[in-house]
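dumping these here so i dont lose them again. two proteins, back to back, each one seq then structure tokens. dont judge the mess
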Amino acid sequence: MADVHVRICEQEIIKYDLEIKALIQDISECTGPHNELTELNCKVKERFSRLRQRIQDLEQMGKEQDKESDKQVLLKEVEAHRKQMLSNQTAWRKANLASNLAIDKLEKEDLLNVGGTGARQRKMTKESLAQTSSDITESLMSISRMMSQQVKQSEETISTLSTSSRTVLETNEEFKAMTGTIQLGRKLITKYNRRELTDKLLIFLALALFLATVLYILKKRLFPFL
């Protein structure tokens, strides 16, 4: 069981060592910006921390071996891994130095290029300012013409709205007159319906009186002794 843990620990040590070497190569080739270099260095620090911990774990496993021969073998491996880690740290410092020099050189070249093109840029700026001024004048004149047209359209719209308003008022008065006529017609119809009901009631009463009279006469003639 202990051999399995030893093999896993050795594999992880080799993995971290290879990752550190690859990151150091990336740092040596890094030409900026500085935040990219900082990010690479953070990754290297994290890998070194893991590698250091696994080397300590391997050393502890070696000390716990029952056989003296196995113990010596593992302790020698630990010593070799620590030497390799120190070698990687040296390479890491050199890579950072090379990267910083390359970044500084590129920044200086950029500054020189900017200075050389300054005169040309100033000349172009004057010409562009003159053209811009002409364009602005033309644009202002165009805007003035557009505003004049808008004012004229607004006046026509106000006139149209005024005419429409008078038409609406006149239509409203006509609706009021029609409403009065309709109400008068409703009153006349209601009055007529009431009169018609009264006439029907009088006719019904007259018929009832007539029938009562007829029945009385028939009763007297048919049953004179009653």
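---- next one ----
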Amino acid sequence: MMAILFLVGQKLEEPSIVNDLLDIKKTPARPIYNMASELPLVLYDCQYDNLKWYYGRDDNMLNTISKLYKHIYEQWYIHATKSLLFSTLLNDLGSISLKKNVHPGQELQNFTTNIEQTLKELVSSEIGMSSGNLSNIITSGGGKELRVRNYVKISNRETCDSVESKNEKYKGKRIKLE
């Protein structure tokens, strides 16, 4: 669902595609497309009426929650450290001058760019693409991008097997095993 919403948000698909995909008469089998990144998706809070929630094998809720807190803190610390490291590397690499790093006589064959730019400016601009001119950059969340020459609409893509087809294949395999 999120992958489709990303495509709609990028104006690569019409909002009506959501209803079309949910209508099994219109779309009996799922079209093939890349899933959205799981990174920005977090189920944070759920509430249920008349349900006693168990936090682990330990009946001591405070013990279990403190273990959870310690685990999350450790993960945060690791990722905060990595984030700082990557931020520093990106900043240092991004500030590299193209002019200072292109040797005399060396051509930038695959780039049509201003030699006065920094590496960050080159990479950030779509002008820095190879001569193949990949025109669509599809964002799938979590910092992931897919570059394609020609975007194919979801409704025009190949589809996975339908539920009925999958059931028939399974039934056939089961009969062979018996």
